[in-house]
Design goal:
Elements: E1 2-5, H1 12-21, E2 26-31, E3 36-37, E4 54-56, E5 62-64, H2 66-76, H3 88-109, H4 120-140, H5 155-165, H6 167-170, H7 178-188, H8 191-199
Parallel strand pairs: 1-2
Antiparallel strand pairs: 1-4, 2-3, 4-5
Helix pairs in contact: 1-5, 1-8, 3-4, 3-5, 5-7
Length: about 200
């Protein structure tokens, strides 16, 4: 399979999972501003909406939208189905968390990467929204959770790491959220995460 990605973007979650499961895959970097891939192809031929990720399956079919790709991976890739068979509700807990991460936490970061110039009032509003969502995420780790869905690393942890790692790019500290700070540090130390950061040119 082939993952179309942009360094540091939400496509990194799928990249981490590919490294986590040690499946065979290819990478193709996308310049979303120019609408081309690193091979010079028009990315619209792969994803007409122009954003990442896109996952080209071995059948030649292309799957788009981050939540759909991550859910597919949780069903199809080895080692990512923890809790699905003996705890049917876990499958929907996963969807619940993916929905929160996508529509709430991810969205709260969007203004910081929009390229727009905001007034002081708008900056304060953006900051307040982000801090509120970070606080909601921190509450998910209550009780000293290592991972969001119990004892095992899952697709939601890969996505959560990518989003929370964006704090490093926008100058937001997690010091006041020690549970979240420890969670990010723990995930950053995983071999699959380190390998992904290196492959995307974000770590030495």
């Amino acid at each position: 399979m082939k993952l179309f990605y942009k360094p540091g973007a939400c496509s990194m979650a799928a990249h981490i999972l590919l490294n986590e499961t040690n499946v065979s895959y290819q990478l193709e970097k996308v310049d979303t501003a120019k609408g081309t891939t690193e091979t010079g192809e028009a990315y619209a031929n792969t994803n007409p909406r122009g954003y990442v990720p896109a996952l080209k399956l071995d059948t030649g079919q292309v799957l788009t939208e981050n939540v759909a790709i991550l859910h597919w991976m949780s069903e199809q890739l080895p080692g990512l189905q923890a809790g699905h068979t003996d705890q049917p509700l876990q499958r929907f807990r996963q969807l619940e968390l993916l929905s929160f991460l996508s529509s709430e936490l991810h969205k709260a970061f969007s203004p910081y990467f929009s390229g727009k110039t905001f007034s002081e009032e708008e900056q304060a509003t953006n900051s307040a929204k982000l801090q509120a969502k970070l606080g909601q995420f921190n509450a998910l780790l209550a009780g000293g959770k290592t991972y969001l869905l119990g004892d095992a690393f899952s697709v939601v942890d890969a996505y959560a790491f990518v989003i929370l790692n964006w704090t490093n790019f926008i100058g937001v500290s997690l010091t006041d959220l020690p549970e979240t700070q420890a969670y990010v540090s723990h995930l950053a130390a995983r071999p699959s995460t380190r390998k992904t950061l290196q492959e995307e040119g974000l770590a030495a």
